[in-house]
Amino acid sequence: MNVLKSLLSRFRVLESVELAAIVAHDGLLIESSASPGVDVDAVCAVASNGLAMAEALGREVDKGLTLQALMEYEAGLVLLEPINNEALLLLVTNAREELGQIRFLVALHRDELFDAVEAI
């Protein structure tokens, strides 16, 4: 198992995480770990637009760079976090209750994700 796949599998230990992916800023999938039935390529393509929207909003309200974008929906969460200038972390869940654990795991593995993406 490659390093990125192994890191992404650490997020999938939470039952609610349906998709953990590293996505290029142009929307192309770099690596993922997903539940069966998730259209990974389609979700990744749209996710990069979500981060672009968050960055545009941050500039407009003069809040600086986007560190993390979180969208909460009735049936789950979407978390986007830039890793570097080329890639972002995407997490999709089917529940909202594990938000604290998810954010903890992101913080815990942030440096490892950065190093793994930089090594590509």
Rg estimate, integer Å:
13 Å
Reported for the largest beta sheet, the result is: 5 strands, antiparallel
N- and C-termini, Cα separation: 15 Å
CATH architecture identity: 2-Layer Sandwich
CATH topology: Beta-Lactamase
- Please state roughly what percent of the residues sit in beta strands, choosing from under 5%, 5-15%, 15-25%, 25-35%, 35-45% or over 45%: 25-35%
| CATH class annotation | Alpha Beta
Order of helices and strands: HEEHEEEH
What's the total number of strands?
A: 5
How are the strands of the biggest sheet laid out side by side? 2-1-5-4-3
Please characterize this protein's 3D structure:
This protein is an alpha+beta fold and 120 residues long. It has a single domain (3-118), classed as Beta-Lactamase, CATH 3.30.450.30. Helices cover 42% and strands 28% of the residues. The protein contains three helices and five strands, in the order αββαβββα. β1 (17-24) and β2 (29-34) form a beta hairpin. The mean pLDDT is 95.
